[in-house]
Homer protein homolog 1
Amino acid sequence: MGEQPIFSTRAHVFQIDPNTKKNWVPSSKHAVTVSYFYDSTRNVYRIISLDGSKAIINSTITPNMTFTKTSQKFGQWADSRANTVYGLGFSSEHHLTKFAEKFQEFKEAARLAKEKSQEKMELTSTPSQESAGGDLQSPLTPESINGTDDERTHEVTQNSEPRAEPTQNALPFSHSSAISKHWEAELATLKGNNAKLTAALLESTANVKQWKQQLAAYQEEAERLHKRVTELECVSSQANAVHTHKAELNQTIQELEETLKKKEEEIEKLKQEIDNARELQEQRDSLTQKLQEVEIRNKDLEGQLSDLEQRLEKSQNEQEAFRNNLKTLLEILDGKIFELTELRDNLAKLLECS
């Protein structure tokens, strides 16, 4: 998308009652994010606010708009294209002042962009286009594109409202696509980590089995040594050798016990790694489920977008048929007026003759 958010704040959104034109109707139950967007491709600024997936503000800033502070925490502006008045209630006067300053800044930027566009249109116009005059349609100007002229306000309001619906619904669609890409990247990372941990787990399991075999061998060796010590103690003629050998055996037993403790500590660490691997597996399953939910929602949004496009095409066809019928009626009316004019002339001649 060419649009990028350049300033955001939070406020309660209201719209003027279309029937009374006096009372405010809340558009959101709680404070929502209100953002300024800049479309670099069209060189326009817009104010957009979403309540869930519903766009409650979609207002294009034009040079003739004015943001008015009606109280310390409330401000409003009129949008002729949307045929409504928007109101924002802020949590503090500072937020209201900041929003008003940004409104004035982007309004001035819109005015400069309009002037530059007019200059470009004047420079690119050719003498042949000027001489064509009333026979050919005049080139599009920023006023006719953006709908800022008073004489075209009603036409632009009719044409802009059906076109705004796909744009408003396309914003959460793009936002959901960005979330989907983020979760896909997270899932790929977790898959890589899971593969590494699985390999480490298999290696650690093999090591545990080997250590258990070694431990069993050490225990058998210790028992055998104890029996050997007992046998040596029974031999009185070899008492000194037995004591020396016993000391060596005791030292060997102590070393084996220390080795056994180390192996037990390593086994505990491996158990912790196994638990961590299980937690990562659960996180991966959770992310997979979230990704599936996002994909389902994307499909729903695509269906909504397709439905809106069909509705827009149907509306355009109906407008085209209405215009054709209107042209036919105008031609018939011109014929009737011409006949009435001839009849009036004939009656006038009869009166003169009589």
Q: What stands out?
A: The first strand starts at residue 3 and ends at 16.
